Fold this protein.
Amino acid sequence: MSDNAYKDRIPVSQQALVIENNEPEKIGGTINIEINGTPYKVPFGMTILESCKMHNIHIPTLCFHEDLCIAGVCRICLVEVEGMRTLQASCAYPITQSIKIHTSSEKVRKARRHILDLMISDHYGECYSCNRNNNCELQKLAKEYGVDFYRYGHVQEPFYEVDKSSYSVVRDMNKCILCRRCVRTCIDLQEVGALDAVNRGYDTKITTFLDKPLAEVICINCGQCINRCPTGALRANDPSDEIWEAIDNPQKHVVIQTAPSPRAAIGEEFGLPAGTSLTNELNTALKMIGFDKVFDTNFTADLTIMEEGTELLLRLKSALVDKDPNVKLPQFTSCSPGWVKYIEHFYPEYLDHLSTAKSPQQMFGAVIKTFYAQEENIDPANIVSVALMPCSAKKFECNRPEMDSSGFKDVDYGLTTRELAQMIKEAGIYLPELSKSKFDEPFGEASGAGLIFGATGGVMEAALRTAYELVTGRPVPFENLEVLPCRGMEGVRQASVHLENVKPEWSFLEGVDLNFMIAHGTANAEKVMEALRRGELNDIHFIEVMACPGGCIGGGGQPIPTSLEIRKKRAEAIYKEDEGLPIRKSHENPHVQYIYEKFLTDGPCGHLSHKLLHTGYVKRGSYIA
Amino acid sequence: MPILNKAIVFKQENCGDGLQKALNMKPIDILFAVRESGLKGRGGAGFPAGSKWMLASAAQSDKKYVICNADEGEPGTFKDRLLLTEFTEQVFNGMTICGYAIGAHHGFVYLRGEYSYMIDEMQATLQQLHNSGRLGKNILGSGFDFDIEIRLGSGAYVCGEESALIESLEGNRGEPRNRPPYPANTGYMGFPTVVNNVETLATVPILINKGVDWFTSIGTEKSRGTKLISVSGDVDRPGVYEIPYGTTIMEIIEMAGARDVKAVQVGGASGICIPEAELHRNISFEDVPTGGSIIVFNNSRDMLKILENFMEFFTEESCGQCTPCRIGNKKLLDGVFMIERGECSVQYLRELISLGETMQVASKCGLGQSSPNSFITIMKHFGDEILSKY
């Protein structure tokens, strides 16, 4: 069920689940059990919950999440095991004996109902004023169990102040049911540990270090906690009111860029299965809502490839030809703002390894308020630039003080997939049934290389498609341009491409194996960084890191729920769309060629692109003032 | 602080040299001796010590641990304090014997934070044992190495629960783990670990010295040996008493000089309330098991106030991890307040008792499973009195 990549993240207390009773010889075998009177065969060591799922027997869960290690704290998944005095949490009970299980006996139903009543009694808020209305696991269970009154009362007043300090994540602990999924997400998936439980007993709460506002502690804004929160306790900082205001203001020229991942996921908000791409329908919807122009972030993803790829080749030249000891390799990608903040906090001494290229979002921001304003003769002061992103960290990124190279705030608002879906619904539009329309000029076309940025490994694949061809004059040697070693969901991947018969100007790369790595989820990034620190990565040239599991398609602004299965489907949708595009290499994007001809005339990594498309980083460190 | 009545097991003359005797035996013979003795965990749960040791012994691992649970936190319980001061060496010897039997070379004493005043004397005893070759390398020439480290708790009641204790020892927030796996298989740092109560471990060297037959001749069929009981409350002579299993509650409180008894709380806050009419019941795993505390209430006591005290304790001391315990105890406490204010309907009281029954089966660990015991038993025996009063 869960991604093997996370197996070694299981806490020590749960690692030995399958060797209970000292019967390792049974591992891999099956065991006969009985569920609700019917005999079944299940793999030895499988939990009761998984076994029931396997046989289509529904057990409610709350603290369980398939991406995370087992907690067994909410107790809603209790079942009766014959011969045991107490009920057992099915998520945490590995089957090592021939047991008889009852999943909905009177004892079980009564206990579940009581537990649910207790949670509801302690859960402040009314469903209709909650952003998780209709997508809340607690609400769903209340319906499932027919809760129609407050058996143990209901909190009338909020107890905690809502923490809106962060640009990215809003915490409303009044709605928290202490399932600790956020805690486990932050430490197990992300190795950040911004959140943890403090106090004891009824005073227990999930909070930050010293109860500080989230903006003041070490949080990388990835929003993975939001994606795994079963209730409305965690949400993204929603700018849609401000965006509506700008749209309604005739003085303002409101443009939106859309990243590839939201397009592959927004259908889920409208009831479509995961993996349905609605790119062109979305363009229509955005126009209907009132955006003046709709641009494709893939254009600046292509630009990123040109800038970041050139930067890499320059670094390689300094290292291999000039033998410059100060050149930093491997080079890290810098398009994931969660990853950027992670390295700023935890590995500030390695910031020089980070590409100075801005993320596609921020490149577009700078281009819109300079080149586009100039071409279209619009006062950049009147442009409101919105970015549709799968990401909560993008909200923080666009508010970084250095992101003003256009002379204005380059990107005004980062909008998540969920928030845009809400705006579309509010406008009375049913997205899946809309007609298709294209992106607006002058950035109308983008390559498939920019598109696949959305999935883990995509930046690497896009970079290889361009870099290999730039250096050798031939397309990257993979069938149909699918650089398969870059794809997949394994936490850390490593591969290499052999360079031979290179063009004369790249002769220093003749015979070189270009070694690259890919990591997604900052817990995996940590593994890479520790390997780097131990000196094990000296022969690696380029490393892609995405802060979120699965890459942007699993971002903190994407539709809820998330699972490995859902992320795989979203990634498939992106790869499929890439396959059908006429242009699939960044350097072949005519608009990219045009902007270098007309505007960034000194070429990639030239003077103007350095001013507009590159940035610097902050050594934040891991201490809190 | 001596045992106030005539001691049976915990007499210095019984101690002899259990450690030397044990080291002359084969580990497997110790395991069988402990199992045949019927010695059960003295902390309250009563899991057979021999079985626990055998599980740990059978577990395949290059490292194993013995932990002495000295986090005596149950309100009204202070019998381990006596053993740790009067029978310190026997406690340590018990750990060494356990280590020898299961193949562990390292032991921890998890000492209740409030007992930190004992630590100097305990360290001195450890030093003496080292100096006399009864701890450390090659103990008494047997070739067996064992060392003991004392660690202090920080005041959380829940850390008396063995898996929460282990979490705390590992440096984590003290919260019970999911089980299975049990500590005997996956304990401290993931290694097989035996966690035994102070009294269980202190019994072992005496049991080995005096023999299994002697030990099984004491107590009842399913409850061998004796139990130390801390008696407090409305009695003339509060203190620790040693009784063979099967002794009635009446006998115990008479020893301590109880008069005008209304009820007896057996097993501390997490235990059960026995009304005057049931004092003929006896202390044993067959009838009323206990970790070792009896609190006597005379007729001047208000049972609701007693319950309020217990529920306040649990609302605070729950680790806050699982729903039934974290919120359930608060609801029971709120219920007590409602009764005090005359606002609790009979129907809501029934709801709360039903909630208590759910907590007994749905909570993650022994704390939440036993915290509603006093609410349920006090309401059962004194519900009418309470409702007529408030």
Summary: The radius of gyration of chain B is 21 Å. Chain B touches chain A through 47 residues (CB under 8 Å). Chain B is about 45% helix and 15% strand.
